[in-house]
Write a structure and sequence with these properties.
GO cellular component, one term (chains A, B): peroxisome
Largest interface: A-B, 63 and 62 residues
Helix content of chain A: 55-70%
Strand content of chain A: 5-15%
Radius of gyration of chain A: 25 Å
Keywords (chains A, B): FAD, Flavoprotein, Oxidoreductase
Pfam families (chains A, B): ACOX_C_alpha1, Acyl-CoA_dh_M
Distance between the termini of chain A: 38 Å
Cofactor (chains A, B): FAD
Protein name (chains A, B): Acyl-coenzyme A oxidase
Oligomer: homodimer
Shape of chain A: globular
């Protein structure tokens, strides 16, 4: 049976090394009645309760508890690869549960484990893995979403009590869109650390929000944000802090700490670099988002492709109507997304392996700049590709694709916000290009102007060769030629962007933000060309 | 105050000749408390009830009643233009109400008024305008959505009782996605008319569904289709007929009638042409859909552009952050949609005027083939453009754009099905190209092969001239050059498609459906190029 053999080999490739674990999880979930319910008829509160119960079910599975404890103790070799495998299975079962698990384990858990000391992990994350409480991640504010460096929440150190006082000084400083805000017990809150009147930039603090009975701690307010396009099971809210006192030990202290008498210490002196290091440490959750998008995409494709093989419409005169997958437009709309899903599966795994290796060797993720850029690019590309894919799946399944029972609409609505959260996609593309420009400048070493000119010349000769090759029609299906073409596109865009920025900033003395902004369309085109080409 | 003056002139242009009527309607609606409610917290049934109440409110407005009565009596000069103006106002207030009004007045009302006799209009549509009952439109079946010619519902004529017997012979014949199916009183049902054992093709019958107390008529079943991605206020259902007897007078008889003793008469002998004539008579509702999409698009743009002028994020070092509309990517994402909304506004009005003129002069819409093609193309282009626009509005407003209270998500979910209903967009593009190919064949008159060759030659010389012009950079902003470019693209695609089809069908003797299907991507590219160029 070569067909069966081929299928199982493909599923092995798709699931990768953790296929057995994923299969066991799939089986556990498929046998759990909580996942058999649909939520269309439920109220918002009932939907959130169902999601919380589903998350609790997942977290208490022995496999999951074993895995999460690894995050607290010594890191396993393949922790990130394994986490992503698990995330995909949960998201396929229910995206809201997957996203809520991402908030509790990835964002809150990631903040504690990547920004905290071993003692802080024991104190704040071990109980989560033991289902004693859940956490949330409070970075975004009303006034600052993409530009998180500008957050306004304050954390004043008070030496007399050895406490930090967390405060929301104004409307714009309110923490917004916080997932698990209406149910969670404590939050990883980013605030400007102020010691002796001097700001040390944003740091992360553990702030208790409500006790196990749901009673709020003094000074903390959580406002329900209620109805969203999707992810109804995730309770997003607004957090406001009115001079909330927390112990000194609640500052996650890997990148900065305050001594009892109020002296600030940090292994990184530059404030901006320090914050970059914190953000870099949180990169793994960004890669998880790629996997969440992939889960939605694969599920949508399975539904749409299967339907297209069963539905018949139109056909040759006086003959049976043909399967709609045989309509040229139908397969030309669906198949490229299937190809993209496969390409993204393997590129994501490649990035996860690089990350695991970096962490295994104790390297700071801040120093893996090209990995940062790859992950930012993958986040943008995969979440956009997911939306385009699901939209085609929706349209290619006609009226059926508009009915909630067929899952595609909910997948679309749930994953729509993926292009925004964990870093807006347009900002992500700029992260990619800043890295490309840095590499480019390094390559050119000394004389920037000379380098640019030399490169422009070689671009011109490239152009000639490529366009001559382009005339041969059989080249279109030749992978080596296609790779050459996408590399060429990227190179031309990169060199011309460098030249434009050089002229604006170095020659015309334009302010950098203005210069960069006037090239932003060029920047995003280059970023997409880079991601499209794939691995370095 | 030149600014104010410019604005009011623009709004005059946008609203067109019915600005005063539209303003009065806007005021009536804005003062109606039913439209102040939000439906996120309501159950599905409550949402549907609210929509029904909103529709009732709109239909009882004196302006509306006057307008609808015009549809029953002698047609006014500008009936379609006026209807579209009204539809836009209602859809801007609430898309579900606008769509439900479209079902009751446009689809059911349009079937009765365009396929029925004057007496049938008096009997079946006048009561709707007097709020005595509401109707629905039952064409689509489970087995046949796009290919409606293949519907399976049967209407047998029984001379002994002078009745038609409407029957659903199988699962695939069930009428699906029928709007107002859970609340409406009677349906315009398309069924294969069978007289003396001979089928005369699809015809439209008025079938009573439920009385004023909601009691179903014998033999009729309506199954609730429940939860959809959007348009929650529209009650879609499945209709099943188990040998339902209706009087002979319930066959809408403009294009075909049966005498008491069972003799079939029709002004059109060819069955296929007859059905085409019926479909053509229903074209106005397709144009209404373009207006519904435009309403969603304009509203989304207003929200996104205003937000982009108030939100600030990032900026030059040590200066205030800039408004996000100043980010190059932000305005490059939003402004083309604004331009498209304007272009579509005027093109739609142009099509409506053509349609009004044809109807005013008593011309059958079937004979205005190029108008049919324009409307089909506008339907596809505007509904896709709307979705692309709303998606950019959603993304450009960040997290805010994911919150239901900011309307963009609901607009997106409600209007998503516009690309499917009233004719799937991919099918609409094929309607456009069939018309283009017919015109092309006519142009070539006699010797097809010779004509093709001659045209290919002129294409080649066009190509040369255009590419030389293309080198001059200032041409890019020159409207005459751009029009030349889009015409050129269309011409090349049209000639090459004709040549490909000619080779396949005439030379290689391929079956037509297969030949056409193997060019389907080419077909859709040509259709979009044609619509993109705009007016003929």
């Amino acid at each position: 049976m070569p067909g069966k053999c081929a299928r199982s080999t493909l599923s092995q490739y798709l699931d990768g090394e953790f296929q057995d674990l994923k299969d066991r999880l799939r089986q556990e979930i498929s046998q759990c009645e909580l996942f058999h319910l649909t939520s269309y008829d439920l109220t918002l509160d009932e939907t959130r309760d169902l999601t919380a119960e589903r998350l609790h079910f997942v977290l208490q599975l022995p496999e999951m508890r074993r895995h999460l404890k690894e995050q607290v103790k010594e890191r396993q070799n393949r922790f990130i690869c394994k986490s992503l495998g698990i995330a995909e299975v949960i998201c396929t079962a229910d995206l809201a549960t997957g996203v809520k698990m991402g908030v509790v384990c990835g964002l809150f858990g990631g903040a504690v484990t990547n920004l905290g000391s071993p003692e802080q992990k024991e104190k704040w994350y071990l109980p989560v893995t033991e289902l004693q409480f859940t956490g949330m991640f409070a970075m975004t504010e009303r006034g600052h979403g993409s530009n998180v460096r500008g957050i306004l929440t304050e954390a004043h150190y008070e030496p007399s009590s050895q406490e930090f006082i967390i405060n929301t000084p104004c409307e714009d400083a309110k923490k917004m869109y916080i997932g698990n805000a209406m149910k969670g017990n404590c939050a990883a809150v980013f605030a400007q650390l102020i010691v002796n009147g001097e700001s040390q930039g944003p740091h992360c603090f553990i702030v208790p929000i409500r006790d196990h009975q749901g009673v709020m701690y003094p000074g903390v307010t959580a406002v329900d944000m209620k109805h969203k396009e999707g992810l109804h099971g995730v309770d997003n809210g607004i957090l406001v802090f009115n001079n909330v006192h927390i112990p000194r030990e609640n500052l996650l202290n890997k990148f900065g700490s305050v001594s009892p008498d109020g002296v600030y210490h940090s292994p990184i002196q530059n404030k901006s670099k320090r914050f970059n290091a914190m953000l870099a440490a949180l990169t793994p959750t960004r890669l998880a988002l790629t996997v969440q998008a992939l889960a939605a995409m694969k599920l949508g494709l399975i539904i749409a492709v299967r339907y297209s093989h069963s539905r018949r419409q139109f056909g040759p005169r006086d003959q049976e109507e043909v399967k709609i997958i045989e309509h040229q437009t139908q397969y030309l709309r669906l198949m490229p997304h299937l190809a993209a899903a496969l390409a993204l599966t393997f590129t994501t795994r490649f990035a996860a392996e690089m990350m695991d290796e970096a962490l295994h060797h104790g390297r700071d993720l801040m120093n893996s700049r090209s990995l940062q850029a790859l992950v930012a690019g993958l986040k943008a590309y995969s979440t956009w590709e997911n939306l385009a894919c699901l939209q085609d799946c929706r349209e290619c399944t006609g009226g059926m694709g508009f009915m909630m029972e067929n899952r595609i609409p909910a997948l679309k609505c749930d994953s729509d916000v993926f292009v925004t959260f964990e870093g807006d996609n347009v900002v992500m593309l700029q992260v990619v290009v800043r890295e490309l420009m840095t590499q480019y400048t390094k390559q050119l070493e000394s004389n920037a102007m000379f380098g640019l000119l030399r490169n422009w010349t070689s671009t011109a000769s490239d152009s000639l060769r490529t366009s001559v090759l382009g005339f041969s029609m059989d080249k279109v299906g030749d992978l080596a030629f296609l790779l050459k073409a996408v590399s060429y596109r990227e190179r031309v865009l990169q060199r011309s962007l460098a030249a434009r920025l050089y002229t604006k900033v170095e020659k015309n003395k334009d302010e950098f933000f203005r210069a960069w902004n006037s090239c932003l369309h060029h920047v995003t085109s280059l970023a997409l060309a880079h991601i499209h080409r794939g691995r370095r």
